[in-house]
Amino acid sequence: MAKIITQEEIAKHPCFNEESKGKYARVHLPVAPKCNIQCNYCNRKYDCVNESRPGVTSGVLDPSLAVTYLKELEKVIDNISTIGIAGPGDPFANPEETMETLRRVKNEFPDKIFCLSTNGLGLEPYIPELASLGVTHVTITINAVDPEVSAQIYRWIRFEKKVYRGVAGALLLLNRQLKCIPILKEYGIVVKINSIVIPGINDHHIPEVAKVCKELGADIMNCIPLLPTADTPFETVEKPDSVTLFRVRGLAKEFLPMMSHCARCRADAAGMLGEDLSETFEILQSVANSLPGDVSDRPYVAVATNEGHLVNLHLGEAMHVYIYKKSPKGYQYHEMREMPKPGTGDKRWLAVAQLLSDCRALLVSGAGESPKNIITSCGTKVVVMTGMIDEGLTGIYENKPIKSIAKPDAFRCGSGCSGNAQGCG
Fold first, then answer.
1. How does pLDDT run across 9-19, given as a tens digit for each residue?
2. How far apart are CA 125 and CA 108, in angstroms?
3. CA 146 to centroid of chain Cα atoms
4. Crossing angle of helices 346-355/369-377, nearest 10°?
5. Given 3.20.20.70, 1.10.3720.10, 3.40.250.10, 3.40.50.1820, which CATH number is that of 7-287?
6. 165-180 per-position pLDDT tens digit
7. Which CATH class is domain 292-404?
C-alpha cells in the first residue's frame, strides 16, 4: 500500500522545499562507496573539507555504525528532519549496505524523513521495501532521454556483472531509470529528477528530459550546472553561464517545477543546506573507524609495516604483519605473523581473516575494496592510514579520530575509480 506523504513531511525536507532550508537540517549517510556507472564528469578520488560536490566524503560508514553516527550528530545539530543516502557511489551498487542502513535507522528514528539519491540503474527491485521503510523522497539523476546524448556522458554502465558502453549502455540505463518513475509514484513516493547541465552535450536537451519525466509522473526537477572536475573527460568543459542556466531552467519549468536552491551536497553532508558543520567531519571519521559490537575477545591489532614504526605497507604487498596489544604500560609489540602467500584470490583474504581472528583491526597504508570487505566482514576492521603506528593504535583502542587516515583509499581498487569497470589488474 502506498504511504500517504503529508504536507508537513514535504515541508520539512530542505532539499525539496526552499523555505525549510534554514529551519531544518539534513544528514547524508555515506554507506555506499561503490558505483555501477562511470560518468564523464565524476571523480571521487579526492576529498577536501572545503569541497562540496556529490561523490566526496571524509569516511565511509558501516551500516552497523550509522545509528551511532546519527546520535553523535544530534548532540551538535538541531532540528535534523531528514536522513538520506547519496553515495559516495550509488546506493544500489551497494544494495545490502543501503537497505541494512535504512532498516537500522528507521527502527531508531521512526519520525524522520527518509530519502535517497540514485542513478536508478539498480533501483527497481528495492522500491517496495523502500516504501515499507518509510522512504518518502527519491531523486534519480537522468541527464538525457536520448541514448545518443547519454552515450556522450557515460564511459560505461555495469549491470549484472556485465559492462556496457556507448549507446547500448546508455539505452540500458535509460530504460531502467524511466521504468522506476511510475513504480515509485504507485507507492506514493515523491520523485525528483536531477539533470547535470553540460554545455555542448545536453544543455539543449534538458527540456525534453523534463517533458518525458513529467509524463511518467515525476514531481520536481533540479538542473545542476556542471562542475568541471580534474582528471575527468569533462574537466575542460566550461561550466554553464547564468544565461544558459536561465534558459534551460525556464524551458524545463514548462513541464516540471524547478528546485533552485541546490547546494551540490557532499555524500557526508550534515547540517543546514549550504551550511554544513565542519566538526561533523571529525565525528564521521571517529565513528567510521570505531569498532561495532563487543571486541573483548579480540585483544590485538595487526599492522602492515616495514620496520615497526610506521604504517607503510599496502595490504597486497605485506608478507607479514606486526601484532600489538594494549597493556597498563602502553602499547606493546606481541609477535610477527607471516601472511598467506598471494595467488589464491579471495581465498587469501579469507585466510588472512582467519590468521587475524583475534585482532580487532588491521592497519594498512592501502587496500583493495574486495579484500577490505572480506576481512572486515569476518570481524577484523581494515583501517587505511599513513603515519605512526601509535597513532593508529590510539585510534583503535581509545576510539579516537586517526588524523593520518588515508581518505582517498576509500574509493580505490574498483570501488569508485575512473577505470574501465573490469576491476584492478
1. 665 665 655 55
2. 25
3. 27
4. 40
5. 3.20.20.70
6. 999 999 999 999 999 9
7. alpha beta
